[in-house]
Amino acid sequence: MIYNLEYNTERPKLNIPDYGRHIQKMVDHAVSIEDAEERNKMAKGIIAVMGNLNPHLRDVPDFQHMLWDQLFIISDFKLDVESPYEILTREALNERPEPLEYPQNFPKYRFYGNNIKKMIDVAVSWEDGEKKDGLVLTIANHMKKCFLNWNKDTVDDDVIFAHLYELSEGKLNLKGSDEKLSDSGKLMQHRKRYNTSNNKKNNNNNSRSNNNRTNNRKRY
After folding, report:
1. What is the C-alpha to C-alpha distance for residues 220 and 75, in angstroms, rounded to an integer?
2. I need a surface site. Which of 46, 78, 104, 169 has the fewest CB within 10 A?
3. Angle (nearest 5°) at CA 97 between 95 and 103
4. C-alpha span between 24 and 29 (Å, rounded)
5. SS3 of 101, please?
6. Contact 49, 26 (CB under 8 A)
7. Torsion angle (degrees, nearest 10) of CA 146, 150, 154, 158
8. What pLDDT shows up at residue 9?
9. Rounded CA gap, 26 and 45, in Å?
10. Alpha carbons 127 and 69: distance in angstroms, whole number
11. What pLDDT does residue 220 have?
């Protein structure tokens, strides 16, 4: 007959289950030690054992700091020892972080993306000259390429010029100019060629991986 069996449902809850029941018992024992010097010695020993359980994290910055924080969490913040770092409290652990600011941009023409708007703002800030004219023309060609990614048919240059004028708030005006953008067919052909090359690379990688699997199989 086997007596005094322990079931996990009857045992105390593990505050950090990753470390297991033995670490939890060691921490509980450290909490019960009355002598402060002996308790600090015990805490350092537990930290050493916890570090040995995670050898792959030894090169992570603030690894020791993380272990001490976890030690206090395992003890349910009841362990009174001297820590080389700021002692973690329950309030600090449960404190909600401040929300991160996220750019709330709602562009009218979403298919151009936010980078186009940033490029337009940069072009507006430049002084008039050949350099600025070249940048504006490059932006217009990129806008046409983005438009064709969204609408896989064709687009007139006048439409791109009108969008550029609107996005720049009238500060970049190519409407009525003699400038010609890249041909839609060439842009679409370049896009197809790029997709085809990517598909070939993916197929080659898949075939190589399949060959490696076949060669690595054990033969009996």
Report:
1. 54
2. 104
3. 160
4. 9
5. coil
6. yes
7. -60
8. 76
9. 10
10. 56
11. 31
Closest CA to 78 of 27, 17, 18: 27
Could you give the C-alpha distances from 148 to 88, 116, 145, 175, 182, in angstroms and in order? Answer: 55, 15, 5, 20, 12
| C-alpha distances in Å from residue 180, one per residue of 116, 137, 152, 174, 218 | 19, 9, 20, 10, 62
3-state helix, strand, coil in the chain (%, to 5): 60, 0, 40
What tokens does 151 get? Answer: 């609408």
Q: Over the stretch 91-134, which tens digit does the pLDDT of each residue have?
A: 998 998 888 877 666 567 888 888 888 899 999 999 999 999 99
Looking at residues 156-185, what average pLDDT do you find? 86
How far apart, in whole angstroms, are the C-alpha atoms of residue 102 and residue 79? 40
Rounded to a whole number of angstroms, the CA Rg of the chain reads 32
Mean pLDDT score across all residues of the chain: 82
Average pLDDT over every residue of 181-210: 61
> Does the pTM of the predicted model rise above 0.85?
no
SS3 state of residue 131: helix
